[in-house]
Amino acid sequence: MPENFQDFLKDLQQDNNQAWDKLFITTEIIIKHWAEEKRLEILWCADENGVLNKDEYFNLIIKELKFFLEKGYKIYDFSGFKRVIINISHKLLDEGFLYFMNLISTKNKKAWNIFCDGIKIKIYRFLRMEGYSQINNFEEIFQETLIVFTEKLALGNLEFLNSYKLKSFMLRIAQLKLYEIFRISKKQKDLLWIDEMNYNLPESGSYQEVFENKEYAAYLFKKLEKKEQLIIYYYFFEQKQFKEIAKQLNISEENCRIIKYRAIRKLRKVVGQNKEIQILN
Length: 281
What we know:
The chain has 281 residues and is an all-alpha fold. The protein is built from 12 helices and 2 strands; from the N terminus they run ααββαααααααααα. It has a two-stranded antiparallel ribbon.
């Protein structure tokens, strides 16, 4: 913009094309910074005719600015003019978002594709920020998030004031789906770890009865810490001595005995709640 605001304003009022071109570029910069700060999505905007692209949205702002100036409202400096631009933009974006949500609800293909593309990027960035940049289940999380959203949308009980609120809602769903996948994955790994053990149990011994079922063994072992699991396994299933186990786990022999004792207490408690059985003498 020119250094002298009043000269620039005069050029606008005289419908100087160069001045309006400069204003269009300046408005675009102002709105992009404002939208980023407020975390609003400019592309999620529509009117009664359908989805608006960025140029159409900015043209609407310029149109409103012309109307504002024609009405003779007083603006004294560039700072005041910037506030007018942002206020107009905010109003149009809020109205445009409601139109956009209506298009999504009526399954408008263009609006839905724009929405999905935007959400996919947001979820991917969110997962990277959470430290899951190498996650293999991204597509699954994305699709599951969309399914939950469409199900709730179909019930008609979703209402969002702006695109920021909608994105926050979608990211929360994605986060819950991520935790759900991790829980399932951890459970599968725990079961696999138990299944891969060599259950070379002796023919006699009270703990034989407890671990005779692999599924129940997996359930019991999940009650123990990793080091407790290893000590119980080495001691009872591989018949190793405390000295050998302690050396293998890089701990003292006395510490190994304490951990084994603590693990047995945990197992006795669990078994006592599930079976009438004497466990691990």
